Structures are given as C-alpha cells and as structure tokens.
What we know:
The structure is a homodimer. The first copy, chain A, is an alpha/beta fold. Helices cover 47% and strands 12% of the residues of chain A. Chain A has 9 helices and 7 strands. Chain A has helices at 6-17, 30-39, 67-72, 129-142, 151-180, 190-202, 212-215, 218-227, 232-250; strands at 24-26, 43-45, 57-60, 80-83, 99-105, 122-126, 146-148. In chain A, helix 4 links the parallel strand 6 and strand 7. The model of chain A has no long low-confidence stretch (mean pLDDT 95). The interface between A and B is large, with 91 and 91 residues.
Amino acid sequence: MVGAGNVAWHLAKGLSLKGYKIVQVWSRTIESASELAQRVNAEPAEDLDSLTPETDLFIISVSDSAITDVVSQFNHSGSLIVHTSGSVSMNELAGRSNSFGVFYPLQTFSKYIPVNLAEVPFCIEASGNKELGLIREVAQSLSSNVHEINSEDRLLLHLSAVFASNYSNFMYMLASDILDSRGLSFDLLKPLVAETAHKVITSAPSRVQTGPAKRGDLNTIDKHIKLLASMPEYAEIYRLLADKIRQRFHS
Amino acid sequence: MVGAGNVAWHLAKGLSLKGYKIVQVWSRTIESASELAQRVNAEPAEDLDSLTPETDLFIISVSDSAITDVVSQFNHSGSLIVHTSGSVSMNELAGRSNSFGVFYPLQTFSKYIPVNLAEVPFCIEASGNKELGLIREVAQSLSSNVHEINSEDRLLLHLSAVFASNYSNFMYMLASDILDSRGLSFDLLKPLVAETAHKVITSAPSRVQTGPAKRGDLNTIDKHIKLLASMPEYAEIYRLLADKIRQRFHS
C-alpha cells in the first residue's frame, strides 16, 4: 500500500479483513506508514526503494497531486500497479510498468470514521484483460458495486462527486457557521440533512428541490441576504445559488 | 388547515393520524383543497369566509409570500391562529386575533414522499402562555423534538436550512446534470450522498470536509473547470465554492 491517507487507510483495512496480505505500507512520513502498517499487520517501508518486488499488486493511494512524483520514483516494472484516484488518467502509470490500472472507490473517506465498503462503487480500469481480471477480483471481494469505467468518464464522475459530496458538505458547514453565530445547535438541522439526502435515493434531485429560490419567493430571499449582512462571503454564495436555482426553475 | 401544499399535506395527515379532527381544508384551488380534505376526512372550503369559527386551531400553511394576503382575509378574532413558516415573524398574525403563534416543522416536505414526523424538530412560539401550552401539546403529539424558538432565531434557522437542504439538494442536481451530459447514472453517487450526510450526524461538517479544494489541489480543480467548458453556469458555481473552501482551509 503506497500511501496511508484517508483512502489508503480504508482500503488496507478492508483488504486485510478479506484475507489479503498487506505486505508493506509506505507513506511520506514513517509515522503515518507505521500507524496504518500496525493496524493491518504489515511492515512500514522507509522509502519507495525498499518496497519488495514480490508483491502481486501495488496500490498507489496518495493525493492526486503526488501521484506523478511517486510514480516517477517507482521501479518495479514487472508488477501490477494501480492508483485509486478519480481524476488522474490511467496512462499516468504507463511507462513505469507494463501492467497497470485504476481502482477508484467512489466514496468520501475520513480516517477514523468507519465506512461500509460493500456498497461503495468501485470504478476499475486496466491496461489489459489479465490485469482487469485481477483488479475486478480484488474489487469484488470488497464490494458488490464494481464498474468498468474509462479515465474520461471517471474524471466526470469525480467532478460530479465534488458537487454531490464536497460541496454539499460545505453547505452543511455554512449552515453550521450561521447557527453558531447565534449560539444555535447544528443538531436542529440533522433530521433535515438526513431527509434531504434520503429523498434523492428514490427521487431525482430536480423533482424534490424545495425552498424560497425554487418558489421564486424574492421577499424571503431578501430577508435571508439582509441577515447575512455581517457575513458577506456567505451572502455571496447564497445569492449566486439562489439566482441559479431561480434561472433553472423559472426561465 | 389553511393551505394544501407540501407542509399542509404532511401536517394534516400527521395530525389526523394522531386523532385530531381536521374540520376543513382551504386552498387557493378547490381541487387541491379537495384532494387533501379527502385524505384526512375533512370538508374542502370554497373560500376563507366559509371557514367555521368552531375550531380550536387554524393552521395557516401557505407559501411564505401568501401569508400576509391570507391573514388579511381572516376574520376569526377569537380563535388561535398559527402559521408554519420559518421566515415570517409571529407578529404578522397580530391584529387578526388575540391568540396566535407559530408551528414550524424544520424539515423538507414533498407531497407524495412519506416523512417520519416523530423526529422532525418543531419550532414553536406563541402570543401567550395559554397559546404556547396548546401549541406545545399539538407539536408533542407529533414529535419528541419540540423547541420554543423566537421569530428572530427561527429566521436564522430557516436561512441555515436553505444551505443545509435546498442548496445541498441543488448540488445533487448539478451532479446529476453533469452525469447526464455523458449518459452516466446518478445511482453511482447515491452511496456517496448517503455517506456524506451520515458523517455530519456524528461529526462537525468542518471536520469531515474532503476534496480537491480542501486539499488545495489546484491541478485537479483546473481539470474540473476545463471539463465544465460547455457548462459555464456550472463552472461559475464550481469556481466560487472551490475558492471559498480554499480560503476557509488555507488562509
């Protein structure tokens, strides 16, 4: 396991639970490599050169921006290498090995928060059929939701995931900040957050859009923006999204 | 029940299930009044003048922008009147009756999608103690999550709910549109949407923020914005939110 961040953490633990032997864990810092290695009964690797070639699969699970750098230091040309990124093309791995592929779990991971991998969509891609077979086998051991997706579609999926997850979480964060400003608890919003997400499991998001902008209720929008007078950054976001929703539903 | 929209629908059904008698349902169109009236064994009311004064509670559950207009036509000065709005001050009801209050369920409602009212936070407010007692009794019959909240705090809650629900749903919608543009299914994102919402039930949103903007990964942000070249409206939203997240975590 090359990497010990949020994704590496959950994959290493998941694979280990399914009976796969994690041989070594490398990370930019030996501390985080050791922390993960300990939990999956593996050895921490001091540097990339010390990775043993006797490994069926190298999983590069570092941040997207670090992949090129890590790959350039990699010299196990006979081994199957995959990365776990949504946004990096499979071909970034070409040239370092003849066998390569992608193993992208479409989920949001935080180190210490458990995730049920069995439902996570794994988007896989490979340089050849033999590689695809092995990657599929590993993915299917973790999840029943495995899809072969090419690099172009995977980038689009990753982009859509930024909206559906990173940006919706940011909306929760803004809501939480606004409540904090008057000592109100985010707990009051939790049933609403849960229900909003729950609705789109069975209905299309456009069918269940509600709120003042959807209704074209300019008076309420105005009240809200006035209330954000002391938080201009929030007002800017509020206004743009209200405008876009109105355009979408009223033009 | 004065109104037959999304909120009125769920409240009338919930109250009816708890043994309250819904006497009449009024709505701007007799069709929607009849549709709801039929389901809760009530009479549809042709106009506001035909509402019987022999009622313990008038619930005004029309859109925020229609409340003032509806209230101005109301002439049951002896009765307890409440509205169900997050953004309208309680005092909008003063003058039409001596007994008034607010009964605001903090949830997103769509007519035909069932909601578990038992967990919905009800924000209540009243013109006096007697009124507060009755409103609390009714709210507690539906939910174990009842809070006395004044008009000012309620407006702030409503504003935060726009971010946490309306705007997060809009993020799902943008994600869905982006996937549609290349024939990919929104189903792929459903485990992610569920997990993102689930995380903030136990963790603060700021602690579980992930993604390229959070990491300051300009290269990935750039790839995403390029991918949105043919969807400039989406690129504008993407860019603003990426900037705000970066400012928040990297300055």
